[in-house]
Amino acid sequence: MLTRRSFLTTAGILALGNLLSSCASSNVDLRVLLLQGSIPPQLLKAFRQNLSSKPSLDFKPQGQLKELFSLLETWQGKDKNETGVWQEIPKIPVINPPPPSLSDFVTLGDVWLADAIKKELIEPLNLTQIENWNQLPSRWQTLVKRDQQGQLQDNGLIWGAPYRWGTTLIAYRSDKLDWQPQDWSDLWDQRLSDRISVVDQYREVMGLTLKKLGQSYNTEKLDQVPQLKTELLALNQQVKYYSSDHYLQPLVVGDVWVSVGWSNEIIPLVTKNRNIKAVVPTSGTSIWSDVWVKPKAKESQNKLSETAKQWLNFCWQPQAAKLISLFADAASPMIDRIDKKELSSEVINNPLLFIDPAIFEQCEFLQPLSKQVEEQYISLWQDVRKSTHN
């Protein structure tokens, strides 16, 4: 999820960011660098109103996850050339030095956690005293429990606090098709030959192909799925464009009829364009999650300030969960913990947000792979892309 972008306009979030930023550069009680659009301004306002005291708050948005990861590296003085699998595109040059002051929390996508842990850019969180952590569904607790190499571990330390999630969807032009795609297998339909655009991420493309074959997104033994390469080659012939930045533009102009991409970018497009529809594949899809991480400090005691604890706890409260699900083009991990009567009809009646439980049960996070397995994925993907007709 390198380049997940928000269609929310920046004006509101920037205005509120300025409102919540401290006038002075020191004595700030809580500094947060957040992914632009991942927290609605309404939530920040509600947080401040819910505080009994009036601490100094500094919330600032950044445009992309890779910028936030780069800041984590900058604070630790790490070599930015040591990129991981999810840093496949060049970083944007730093134009406005110096970097901001070390933040209490930074938004990070779950697929970046392993790299951040291995490179010692973040430190674990002690969430045992955060009341709502125990209310967080086990799927999200499991996601952020890792060992020191970033691999999932049931009894591992907690490395992040999930606050927003979404999925990979199939978007399509209802005015171009006289049928409705429902599952990944529809991408191989000859009626879509040279009419598909897909995010340029091998884990996503190989994952949906594995799902089509009844396998997991996180399959480790690729050699035990003999049909995989044949299916990938066939899909490759269907795809007109691979792009993580511009996969939706061809859909908008009608150059392709189907696009595979991330829900937080597709949902607002569906809202604005009556000819574009989207579905969660019935066999299940990949899930992504934005999490709060704590940058590693030089002299850290792994303690959170009271204001920091209040912020994490607030993000999991029903009020925050409702605001995230309504205004952030994504869902809160606490959405299933809220009485449906309290949720907006816009959320309840949106199957892209309030996903059918039977389908959601089949959805998966993209788990970190061992180096050996990752090399198998990359090698196979490179072989498939060599045959591209694009």
TrEMBL record:
Q: Where are the transmembrane segments?
A: none
A single GO cellular-component term on record = periplasmic space
Q: Does the keyword Transport apply?
A: yes
Cite the SUPFAM superfamilies for this sequence. Periplasmic binding protein-like II
Keyword Transport recorded: yes
InterPro entries per record: Sperm_putr-bd (IPR001188)
Which Pfam families does this entry report, sorted A to Z? SBP_bac_6
GO MF terms, alphabetically ordered:
polyamine binding
Coiled-coil regions listed: none
Q: Please name the GO terms of the biological process aspect recorded for this protein, alphabetically.
A: polyamine transport
Keywords attached to this Swiss-Prot or TrEMBL record, sorted alphabetically, are: Periplasm, Signal, Transport
Q: Which residues form the signal peptide?
A: 1-26
Q: Which coarse location class applies to the principal site listed for this UniProt protein? A: periplasm
Compartment(s): Periplasm
Q: What is this protein called?
A: Periplasmic polyamine-binding protein of ABC transporter
Ranked from the top, the taxonomy reads: Bacteria, Bacillati, Cyanobacteriota, Cyanophyceae, Oscillatoriophycideae
